[in-house]
Design a protein that fits this description.
Layout lengths: L1 H12 L4 E4 L13 E9 L2 E10 L7 H4 L5 H21 L1 E9 L6 H17 L9 H5 L1
Parallel strand pairs: 3-4
Antiparallel strand pairs: 1-2, 2-3
Helix pairs in contact: 1-4
């Protein structure tokens, strides 16, 4: 559901959004799919491969990290996503952007930055003040 909302918002803010991209595109022909959402020409002509992931800080795999700080679980998941997807994205000329959200509502830094940029582009495309689409106003 979050991925679908993000796709719809990206469609409104950015032309050429693609969904579920990456199978069999790399040299190793792996079946992994690093892009839940692909944003062509996202930043400086580079394509962003968004990998949406929801994680719980209570997950036994990240529980030790999660007790350190509020977003440690999300940071651990983001790190694993980079390890898994950076090589394939690099082969394809893409930038891997894990969109990690914790079940308690925390967004990891890379995800928050993408949301902020999408909100800004949406405001521009809708001829609205950027403050209307900021993360702060969405949380209110």
């Amino acid at each position: 559901m979050i991925r679908d909302i993000l796709v719809e918002t990206c469609h409104r803010a950015h032309k050429g959004v693609k969904v579920e991209v990456g199978n069999n595109l790399s040299r190793d022909h792996s079946k992994t799919r690093p892009a839940d959402i692909l944003l062509p020409n996202w930043f400086l002509g580079r394509t962003a491969a968004l990998d949406v992931s929801i994680t719980s800080p209570l997950n036994p795999v990240i529980l030790l990290e999660a007790r350190v700080s509020a977003t440690a679980g999300a940071q651990a998941t983001e790190s694993r996503k980079h390890q898994a997807n950076d090589p394939k994205c690099s082969d394809l000329g893409w930038v891997c952007v894990p969109m990690v959200i914790e079940t308690y509502g925390a967004w990891e830094n890379e995800a928050a930055a993408i949301i902020s940029t999408v909100a800004s582009r949406l405001a521009t495309s809708m001829c609205q003040p950027k403050s209307i689409y900021s993360m702060r106003s969405m949380a209110d």
